[in-house]
HAD family hydrolase (Enterococcus dongliensis), 259 residues
Amino acid sequence: MERKLIALDIDGTLLSSQRKPLDSTVKALKALRQAGHLVIIATGRSRLLAGSVIHQLGCTNYIICNGSAAFLDHEQVYKHTLDREVLTRMIDFASERKVDIALFGLDSFARVTRFDEPKVLEAMGSFGQKAPDYEENYFSQHEVYQGCAFYDQSKDVEFEAAFPEFRLVRWHENSVDIIPNPGSKAQTILALAKRVGIKPENIITFGDGNNDIEMLNLAGTGVAMGNAATHVKEAANLVTDTNDQDGIYKALRKLELVH
């Protein structure tokens, strides 16, 4: 069997609704690695926020911040940060509209505006995190790989039109990720596959959210979790069971990659 690259999202995919990996998932990933396949976590989280899951699963390869950084054997091999000049404009634009912005480095994050604490808390709390601390000058002191803007869908068109330099990907009803344009988990997966000599048709991706659609589309086999929304499932070749019902293991068994 040819070597595969298997890339998996964290929230709603690798983690159950109890926010921990299932035993079947842990065992399946270990079996994949023992068989010589390349297992990569591909998440919208920063390294800081993904660190506990990376450690728990024993993963040494990971794509973070929706593709803005990538690591093989814990060594950074890819980097795409947000443009500081455009970011400054966006912070001013958001402030005029009383929209909160949080910025993420590899191992730190902070809010650079503070207007609507409940919106921030609701979005961050959806994956078990608190609201970022306020640090007005964060972006001038750190490399910024990703941001979050905390607004609902009524402001989507306005922000997207104002900042074509960034991709704004909705992940919660009250928040969008801010990533470089072009930039995505999908593009970084392709770059890593090329780097290690794995053909695109041997890429397998697992995901459940809007920021997974592109990587489900590009993969030789895109696997949507059973808990994904309908439009995410439509992007996949295969729909498996949910993140609470051994979805990852069942799909890998169907693909004859584990027993």
Observations:
- Residues 5-79+183-254 form a domain with the Rossmann fold fold (CATH 3.40.50.1000).
- The chain has a mean pLDDT of 97.
- DSSP finds eleven helices and 13 strands in the chain.
- The CA atoms of residues 96 and 246 lie 46 Å apart.
